[in-house]
Design brief:
Layout lengths: L1 E10 L19 E3 L2 E3 L13 H14 L4 H4 L11 H14 L2 E11 L9 H12 L3 E6 L5 H4 L1 E12 L5
Parallel strand pairs: 4-5
Antiparallel strand pairs: 1-6, 2-3, 4-6
Bound molecules: zinc ion.
Length: about 170
Amino acid sequence: MKIGLGFDCHPFDETDGRKLILVDETDGRKLILGGVIFEGETGLVGHSDGDVVAHACADSLLGASGLGDLGQHFPDDKKLESQDSIQMLKEVVRKVRRAGFLVENIDCVVVTDHPKISDKRDQMQKNLSACVRAPVSVGGKRTEGMNVGKEGITCFAVALLNETENKY
Ligand SMILES: [Zn+2]
């Protein structure tokens, strides 16, 4: 068994001084967490689509398998700006399986004061579990007004891998 810790955070998109205000789809980045679109919520800045949950999961898998970190496999690049992070996570799962590991499970904690993730938790878990082909649980944690919970979204993930004889 191998265990890995993943972490990621992205700030909210504050283009034009907007902060924590509603933006429509055509007027800003969409907020996407665990492959689920949070309609009407401020999106996150970052390369790819800014899905911190998918990124933290991928980071935990790479850490557990000793394959490095997410930045090594997906360097910052304009071409990746709107990349679907669920596809990035799938690519990481393929690399991990090729290295001879099967994913046992991943547990994530999403740190944010807004929006609430509880309404979309089931869909996030479903998306992520299908993607890594193992159970993925997602929990939410508020920071009770501390800046870290207001300026962006942070996610921690812990992955457990099983080393096998087979390279998939
Ligand atoms: Zn990220």
